[in-house]
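Hi R.,

Here's the input for the 5-amino-5-deoxy-1-O-phosphono-D-mannitol complex you asked about:
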Amino acid sequence: MCGIVGYTGHREAFPVIVKGLKRLEYRGYDSSGVALLNNGQLNVYKKKGKVSEMEESVIGKDLHSHIGIGHTRWATHGEPSDRNAHPHQSQSGELAMIHNGIIENYAQIKQELLAKGYTFKSDTDTEVLLNFIEDIKKNNNCGLEEALRIALKRIVGAYCILLISPEDPETIIAARKGSPLVIGIGKGEHFLASDASPIIEYTKEVVYVNDYEIAIIRPDELILKNLGNEKQTPFIQKLDMELAAIEKGGYEHFMLKEIHEQPDTIFDCLRGRLLVQTGQIMMGGIENNLDAFIHAQRIIIVACGTSWHAGLIAEYLIEELCRIPVEVEYASEFRYRNPVINKGDVIIAISQSGETADTLVALESAKEKGAFIFGVVNAVGSSIARLSHGGAYTHSGPEIGVASTKAFTGQLAVLSMMALKIGRAKGTLDEKRYLQLMQDLETIPEKVKEILNDTSNIERIAEKYKDASDFLFLGRGYNFPVALEGALKLKEISYIHAEGYPAAEMKHGPIALVDEKLPVVFVATKDSYYEKIVSNVQEIKARKGKVIAVATTGDEIIPGMADDVMFVPDADETIAPLLSVVPLQLLSYFVGKAKGFDVDKPRNLAKSVTVE
Ligand code: M6R
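And here is the predicted structure with 5-amino-5-deoxy-1-O-phosphono-D-mannitol in place:
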């Protein structure tokens, strides 16, 4: 994620930038920094921690400037630290740059630069790109704009970058592909930011820069060009939003925003890893530890809450595709029941925050007993990520809503790729199915987008059932953990008692709850359990229960029996939870909202549970 801000004009740049960065902290806050130009002097200040910590650290320093760039970071390459914080300076010290995105081919470019004698002060892909630009500028004897254009033609990945240099002391050069950039147009001044929230109090006129465009911005001038050096006409739009709304990207709540971000976050998670054309899955963490997985006698998954539900789905995936026995443990139970851990066991820890105390303590004790720990974590550089021997980040970006949504689908995307990669290497997954599942996984972001296109039906269903005092969620196979997750979401957000059960287990007890007042949510997509779940729906209908079904688009049998239906596109059953969970996230959101609760900060909960 990361947030970026830039300013050139008649005001003092530092206060404008710092205020803007604070508004963008939802995009990441592990370190921040600014670069300011004053009388041909480039001053760069950066610090690990929140923007306020950087602000405090520069008290008494030379902050006078009318042009500057600032960054608040959510680490991807390199741990959160002062030296990995942006802005970065080029080898000569003449260029300063901030970057939001990931340069996928940075390793190759870094090798080339190292061979030419370049040295690097940080672990970031950003510093590699910056020195690459400087190298091109030097070798071609050209200006910064031209050097940038040449560099970007070689870059694979996503970026929004801002560059400044004492050589051109009133100009910011910006470029974007895949990461957002908004330019605010003032009188004799321009503002740049990742979203409009840092801009709106100064001007309502903005230009949204498009992919593959370069912007040359001076106090009185905004020039847009494409990568072919052809001028583009800036399309000026009027912002029609309140500041508060913009901070949430126009959404009423962070939870809703995060649900809607899922096509992008799942795409980001797969990007650079799932290479369908070459049939490869590139995951360094697995590659480096492939032997441990292939020869594992057993895999133990340790997690809490929503992450534990992702672990249950991984159990189905890994056992089916890799034929390795899997146990899924609540971290808090695992820690305190003196578990048997044998040589050859692999422990997978799943955590959004990477700071959950129950999970962390469970891992510490397993590590002491000699277990190999693999972390599937969202927050880069977090405690669980650092404690793990290897791992894979989910790249879902900062999750602010307490109810986990996009982190869950990020976890499922990572765990699916892991199972595919290990199954293929182990020879338990035949090539045809491997390639087919890769292709299916690649289509998931688009299919999630389809579900999110129109949510009015789900909102209507939420309104209809919002006063129920209990809910039952049922599913089978891969959709059983989805039923658990649907129940947890509803409990968290709407404070309605909800239980998740395997649909067939219902007849062993919970069916006694069923009457005409009980809504029963069936996760009933087309899979190998379909016929069985049709019978389970009939059993509920025979007892006058109200059935709300998550069904596959085009299915006519389940919708014919259910009272209300939420449709999802078809997908292989191994990855179907990435889709079937989305309507349940929305259902809980709309019920909580209809009941007037604070869905982003539900009572008694915290985003990161750092106590045991
Ligand atoms: O950060 P973690 O994934 O380790 O957090 C685990 C649980 O605390 C978390 O999933 C919690 O259950 C969420 N509030 C669920 O929405």
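One thing worth noting: DSSP finds 22 helices and 27 strands in the chain.

Cheers,
M.
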